Amino acid sequence: MSKGPGFFSDIGKKAKDLLTKDYSYDQKFTIATYSNAGVALTSTALKKGGLSTGDIGLQYKYNNNIIDVKVDTESNVSTTFTITEILPSTKVIASFKVPDYKSSKLDVQYSHDHATFTTTVALNQSPAVDITATLGTPSFAIGAEAGYETTLGTFVKYNAGVSVKNLDYDASIILADKGDSLRASYVHHLDNLKLNSCVAEISRRFSTNENTFTVGGSYALDPLTSVKARLSNHGKLGALLQHQLQPKSVLTLSSEFDTKALDKNPRFGLALALKP
After folding, report:
1. How much is the pLDDT for 2?
2. Architecture (CATH level 2) of domain 8-274
3. Which long-range contacts (CB under 8 A, 24 or more apart) does 222-227 make?
4. pLDDT at position 92, please?
5. Taking 90 as the threshold, does the pLDDT of residue 44 lie above it?
6. 230: how many CB neighbours lie within 10 A of its CB?
7. How far is CA 129 from the centre of its chain?
């Protein structure tokens, strides 16, 4: 395990990744090239519904400092600077977008062996401020998150979470949406390499008395091929097949069926990422 309790966003992340990561019902193609000088060029094409979009990205990395620029088909330019050498144990991330400059923000992250802190400030005339803090160890962590809207002069978000994990399992409980929802998840690893895992997640929204229960898992068929599946109490069944064509190139096929309405057409997705 890594040192420190991790950031607040890491609480419940393992379960979320098993149930949602790489599930896509669009067509996506990505190709990337790298140079020894730390420059990476990426091109992505995405077909969602009947619309086709894409972007071109250029990234330069030097001593863990990163400059990332992306230009999409609508002429939006997004630039991100990641700097890790300003202060010890601190990372600063500044992102800007043109012409939508109101989405620009500054993110400061601090990591310690027993605590982590993050502050995110929107870079506009009425900045919103998000703050997170996590205390604990790699095995046990407790954290909180708050969002303050300077225009309204009030807190618009506050969440709290607890995480307990070791080599065999990862469990978490998160109280979110200003206390209106509670989500608990449990991941159990079936092997030491964590290639085969099962997961269960239950969430409740108190204002509507709605409960959602989802189970899933992942299984490695061989060193290059893995499958994932998930099923919710609402009858949505998702499945995913991922095959590594070469060390960094991956083909992903995914689908979703509504078991309570089999007359409806299932959804399918294809993603291909080619990297040297």
Report:
1. 54
2. Beta Barrel (2.40)
3. 226/195
4. 96
5. yes
6. 21
7. 20
> CA-CA distance, 53 to 42, in Å (whole number)?
14
The two structure tokens encoding residue 180 = 């209106």
Q: What is the pLDDT of residues 169-217, one digit of tens each?
A: 999 999 999 999 999 999 999 999 899 999 999 999 999 999 999 999 9
User: Quick count: other Cβ atoms within 10 Å of Cβ 227?
Assistant: 15
Q: How many CA atoms lie within 13 A of 244 on its CB side?
A: 11
Let me know: does 4 contact 215? Beta carbons within 8 Å: no
pLDDT for res 50: 77
pTM, two decimal places? 0.91
Whether the bond into 88 is cis, omega within 30 of 0: no
Q: Whole-angstrom Cα distance, residue 252 to residue 199?
A: 21
199 class by beta-carbon count within 10 Å (0-12 exposed, 13-18 middle, 19+ buried): buried
CB 201 within 8 Å of CB 188:
no
Instruction: Give the pair of three-digit tokens for residue 60.
Output: 């330069």
What is the percent of the chain where pLDDT is above 90?
A: 80
Residue 249, exposed/middle/buried by CB under 10 A (0-12, 13-18, 19+)?
middle
3-state secondary structure of 10: helix
Q: Which of 257, 255, 259, 253 is nearest to 271 (CA)?
A: 253
List phi, psi (to 5°) of 101: -70, -20
Q: Mean pLDDT over all residues of the chain? A: 94
Spatial separation of the C-alpha atoms in residues 265 and 73, rounded to whole Å? 30
Interacting residues of 85 by C-beta distance below 8 A, sequence separation 6+: 63, 64, 65
Picking from 136, 131, 142, 139, the residue whose alpha carbon sits closest to that of residue 109 is 131
